[in-house]
Amino acid sequence: MLDATPPLISLAGVRKEFRNGTLALDRVDLAVERGTFLSVLGPSGCGKSTLLRIIAGLAEPSGGRISGIEALRGQVSFVFQEPTLMPWATVWDNVYLPLRLAGAARAPVENRIAETIGAVGLEGFEHSYPRELSGGMRMRVSIARALVTSPALLLLDEPFAALDEITRFKLNEDLLVLWQRQHWTVIFVTHSVFESVFLSNRVVVMSPRPGRVVADVPIDLAYPREGALRTAADYAALCRRLSSLLAEAME
Amino acid sequence: MSGLGDPGSARALRLIAPLAVGLIFLTIWQGVVWYDEIPPYILPGPLLVMETLWTDGPSLLGSLWVTLRITAAAFVTASVLGGAIAVLFAQSRVFEVSFFPYAVALQVTPVVAIAPLIIIWVRDDTFLALLICAWIVAFFPVVANTTLGLNSADRNLAALFRLYGASRWQTLRYLRLPTALPLFLAGMRISGGLALVGSVVAEFVAETGGTETGLASRILEAGYRLQIPRQMAALVLLSFTGIAVFFLLERLSRWLLSHWHESALPGDE
Fold this sequence. Notes:
The complex is a heterodimer of chains A (251) and B (269). Chain A is of the alpha/beta class and 251 residues long.
C-alpha cells in the first residue's frame, strides 16, 4: 500500500514467549493504517489473542518493536470474547465505566452515554442488569462500553464467537454500520473466514503456534455491506481463497 | 421438583417444613418425659420449659440484653475491622503473607483457652474483656472470605481497568470491593453466629458475678441450683437469638445482592 501518512501502529519482529517456555508469537510484522478494518484470522491457539493483548499494552512482548501505541494511550478500547460486564452494575453504569475511570462526573456525560446505548440498539435497557439480558444484548453493552470513549483504535478478541449464528450476523452488520459512521481503526480477531471477509477491508492470516503473519489479503468489496453479500459470488470467491490460505498455514 | 413450582408454595414449604420437624421432635420429647416420668431436674419436658420461659422470661431478658450487646459489638467490630484487614491484605501482598498466619493462629486457638488470660489482662472492664473474646472468634471468617473475594475479580475486567488507566483506589472501589461483597456478606453471616457463641463461651469462662451479666451466667447459676427448666429456658432464648441473628443477616445479604448475585436471585422460573 503506497501511502504518505505513516501507519497508526506497526509491529516489527514481535516475539512472545510465555514463562513456561511456550513460544506464542515469532517474528510478527504488521502495519495497520488509520481507518482500516483489519481481521486477524487464525486457528485457535495461534497467539492472535496474545497479539491483541500486546497491542493493547496488556501484555509485554518478549522481543521486537511496536510503534504507535504510546501515542494512542487512552484512545484504545478492547472487547473480549466474553461480555465481561460488571454484574452488579446496570447497563448505564457499565457503559459509564471508562468515563468514570477517566474522572468524568455522571451529569456531563449523560447525553454521550444515551447516544452510545442508542447506537448499539439498547435504548430502554439502561437500567437493566447484565443478568437480565440475552447473550447478544450483553455483547452490545460490551461494545457500547468500548465505543463510549470514541476510541481511535478498537480491538476485538473474537467477540461474537460464543453467540448463535443469527445473533452473530446481526451484530456483524450493526458493527459495520457503526464503523462506517465513525471510522475508528479496528483490529478484529476471529477464527471465522466468513466473518473476516464480511467485515474487513484487510485480512491477515496467522500460522499455528508460534504465530506469524503468513498471508495478507485486501478485501475489496464495497461498503455498505449487507446480509445479501453473504450469498454473492465475489464474497464466496474471497472466502474460498482465505480458506485455502488458512489450510496452507495449518500445514 | 414437582409441587415446588410456584414461589408461594416454595416459601410456605420453607416455613412449614422446619416447623413440622420441630413439632414432631417436641412431641416425642414430651411423650418420653411423660411416659418414663423423668424428673424435671434431669430432663424437663418442652411444656415445662415453655412455662418457665413465660414465668422467668422477664428476669432472663435483662441478661439476654447484656449478651446481645456484647454480641452486637463483637459482630460490628469483627465486620468493620475484618473487612479493613482484608482490604489491607489485598492491597499489599507483603502485608498479607506477613500477617495472615497470625490471623489463622488466632482463629485456631480455642477461645476457652485464651479467655481467662484476656479476662485477667482486661480486669477493670468485663464488657471489654468479653467483647475481645467474642471478636477473636468472630473476625476470622470475615477476613478470610473478604480476602478471597477481593482477590477473585474477573481477570478481563481487571485488564480493562488497567487499559483505562484506573488508579489503585478506583480498582478497589469499582472492581474489587463489589466483587468481594457477596463473600464479605457470607463471612458476616458466619461471624454473626460466632459472635454470639464467643460472647457466651467467654462469659462461661469468666464466671463474672453481679447484675450486669449475660445469659451464660444465668445458665451456670441455674445449673448449680439444679433449676434445669430455667437453664433450658435460657438456652431456648439463646438459640432463638442465634436463629434471629442468622436470618437477619441473610435478609440483609439478599437485599444488598438482590439485583445481581446468583445467591440472592429467585430460583428457576
